[in-house]
Amino acid sequence: MTTLFLACHDRRNRSWYPVGRLTRNDSEPFEYEFEYIRGAFEAKNSAIPLAVPVPGFPELDKAYRATEIFPIFRYRAMNKRRPDRPEYLNLFGLDPDDTDVLAELAISGGHSVADTFEIFPAIEPDAQGRFKTRFIVQGLRPSDPETIECIASLNPGDHLEPALADNSQSAQHSIRVKTTDQVHLGWLPRYLADVLRQSDALNLADLDLRVVQVNHDAPPSHRLLVELSGQLPPGIDPMVELEQYQPIASN
User: What burial letters (b/e) apply to 117-130, b meaning 16+ CB within 10 Å?
Assistant: First the structure.
């Protein structure tokens, strides 16, 4: 089974809310299910206009099922007929000939200028608690010569370090990405920072963060692809245990 989450954010105050969960059963024909999670209640009560209910899913306490992926997700993936699709998918280390919509959205985020939704993958530990996930480092500073030079010098397999940000209000949910000699490069995606900071079973020092590829000619938003891996105690699944990820329909 493949699981993605849908989140919305408020650009004005950087508030961020996971609101729904999309799952796909790995059988033929594929059956997709979307259901709201408890973070949707926070979003609904926030100042974000039109975030909840999500278009196409009017009832918060209902599970929606379909044999094809729902439009709000499908339209966030690049059209397969576009000639620049291979180049786009290569930015994420994906094979254009062997990548479906969910695999693309899991790493691209499915951003749209029309709204403030974003998509991110579930952290799914195996039976031994091992997990790994890939993402583009966020918030790269192209105006900082040291950052630009440092990123250009990185190679696949190079170690990086996740580090807690300061305790200011603006950084309370943030985790930095640094080189081993402490050059600040950018930030982990918000979903990862939230899970890592809320889970008592995870320790930043035990995580392995490595460069996958540097997209030298890409804009900063797609410049640095990395992979984070770690191990949780068996039976611990932070995205199942955290309150905001609990499904509403089954409660």
Answer: bbbbbbbebeeeee
